[in-house]
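User: hey, got a sec? need 2-dehydro-3-deoxyglucarate aldolase folded
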Amino acid sequence: MQERANSVKQGLAEGRLQLGLWCSLGSALATEVMAGSNCDWLLIDGEHSPNDLLSIMAQLQAVGGHPVEACVRLPEENATLIKQFMDAGARSLMIPNVRNAEQAKRIVAAARYAPEGFRGFSVGHRANQFGRIKEYHQNAHLNQMLILQIECEEGVRNASEIAAVDGVDVLFVGPGDLSTNMGAMHNAGADHVQQAIASVLEAAKTAGKAAGILAPLQADAERYIANGFTYVAVGADLGLVARGSDALIAHFKKD
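Assistant: Yep! Here you go:
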């Protein structure tokens, strides 16, 4: 038995746009519905959603039959969580609020087996089909994808050094946290925030890495894609349900 190739990692390496959707509802059924949308990747959120290891593993199982790469956002940089979620089958991980290259190096090391890193070794787990993928441990890094979020001014200043770390695949801008941390809450369109976002994009491109961003507004997503972002989340289950239900009821209560 062989591990399925990470099509998103391959697509980004070839410079192809990879479109994603955010899964925040903590529901395996809702995530399965999203997986059928023909998106390239889903982000199962473990930071700002009511999720834990078991609920996220259930969502990984729910989307396993779809040709979509499931990515998981951890609540923080934490080597133990990286080990546990990777063993549970999350090979594409997003880590929030990465501020410098040293932190990026720790994250890469936590995701890799010795001698390149210090990920704990287990003979059989969900990631290697319970011991059925015989070459898993030697080749695990080939299909792993690490997406590091840039969400503060320190991260922006150090974006070039973070992107240069071997094993980092994507620099991902979190516009909400970044704008808040730059004194422009709810205003990611502010000039100084947009300049910071552009500088992260340039840092990623210079290092030969992909740049990503969350852009649930269509006009924003189209602009970021035109500028060169290739790992782009264009919507979220929570927002689609909330805005869709709001619009539907508003239509019938328009009088």
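Quick note: The mean pLDDT is 97. Let me know if you need anything else on 2-dehydro-3-deoxyglucarate aldolase.
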